[in-house]
Design brief:
With about 210 residues, this protein is of the alpha+beta class. Helix content is about 50%, strand content about 15%.
Length: about 210
């Protein structure tokens, strides 16, 4: 074979090698691009799914909060109050003439008592002493029937601007309690002029209004 032919053959082989290399590189680039696009699409799909799940979860939470904060109608409330009072009665014990009253967690029964002011132990004791005396002496009902008020509808007295029967008194000078009279729950409204003054009953019935 002549030198010229050998030279031409070498050039042809070199060109074929270069063409083959370019094709392989292009194929690899296409594969890399395909893999990259696939991963990108996967990430976008996962992100979209994550955002969708977050929105759904947020919507569920909003619905739950709305449901929890939505006021109960009277029928539902009466069921909750009945269940609470039944549990409270089971938690109340008497030993050696001393009555120990129990108190379930209102939140477990969906009962909102947040409107009621918080009185210290001494204030509550004085209020119950006045209420107990009124209950037994004026109404002829046993002291055991007297309990802390648990009805949110009566607690509206603290939000009502005119305060109903307690008109003219501040919230921290208004105390409400409840008692059972022949199976019917009634409420007692007590007031005082100041923290140093004694409590007095000004109303009893099924409402805080006349």
């Amino acid at each position: 074979m002549s030198i010229k032919k050998s030279f031409m053959l070498g050039i042809i082989c070199l060109l074929l090698f270069m063409i083959s290399g370019c094709a392989t590189q292009k194929e690899n680039n296409n594969k890399d691009a395909s893999v990259g696009n696939s991963l990108e699409n996967k990430r976008e799909t996962e992100n979209s799914q994550s955002i969708k799940e977050e929105k759904e979860q947020s919507g569920d939470n909003d619905t739950k909060v709305k449901k929890e904060t939505q006021p109960k109608d009277d029928k539902e409330l009466e069921k909750s109050l009945a269940a609470y009072r039944k549990k409270r009665e089971k938690m109340t014990t008497e030993k050696n003439g001393i009555i120990t009253a129990g108190a379930p967690d209102e939140e477990e029964y969906g009962i909102d008592t947040s409107a009621q002011p918080r009185f210290d132990t001494r204030e509550e004791r004085k209020a119950f002493e006045a209420a107990s005396e009124y209950l037994t002496d004026k109404l002829g009902i046993e002291e055991e029937a007297l309990n802390n008020c648990i009805d949110p509808r009566i607690f509206q007295i603290y939000k009502d601007k005119d305060k109903g029967v307690a008109k003219g008194y501040e919230n921290d000078n208004i105390f409400v309690c409840e008692y059972c009279d022949n199976g019917t729950w009634q409420y007692m409204i007590l007031v005082r002029d100041s923290k140093e003054d004694p409590w007095k009953v000004i109303h009893h019935g099924d409402s805080y209004k006349e």
